[in-house]
Amino acid sequence: MVVSGQFDAADDWIVEHVQKNDIVVTEDIPLAARCLKKGARVLDHRGRIFTENSIGNLLATRDLMTYLRDIGVNTSGPKAFEKKDRSRFLQSLDTIIQSIRKGK
Strands 41-43 and 23-25: what pairing? Predict the structure, then answer.
């Protein structure tokens, strides 16, 4: 899908079309929060599952890190993707799929 060049246009499209129990894979914390509100299941590429209980702290941490970078603090970037991340992703994806199948 190609969307307009507006800021967050792709995120807006995703949120507009996501439905309950759809699975969204994203590293974008605000997008994850928006998808969770629509009833989607959300995880990142390393297998971290986002939930209504965890998303508030993740948003706050993201905002803090953005602020620190904006004022010039050198923050470390993400760790390199490793084999264990792939395994964790596959396990988390399977957990989500089984949960949906069981109606949980």
Answer: parallel
Residue 10 has phi, psi (to 5 degrees) of: -65, -45
Identify the burial level of 41 via C-beta atoms within 10 angstroms of its C-beta, where 0-12 means exposed, 13-18 middle and 19 or more buried. Answer: buried
Q: What share of the chain is helix, strand, coil (3-state, %, to 5)?
A: 55, 10, 40
Nearest Cα to Cα of residue 95 among 55, 46, 47: 47
Structure tokens at 57: 């702290």
91 vs 59: CA distance, rounded Å: 24
Which position has the token pair 């009833």? Answer: 39
Query: What's the gap between Cα 3 and its chain centre?
Result: 20
Taking the model in full, what pTM does it have? 0.88
Contact present, 43 and 27 (Cβ < 8 Å): no
Q: What pLDDT, in 10s, does the model give residues 40-54? A: 999 999 999 999 999
Closest CA to 27 of 6, 45, 5: 45
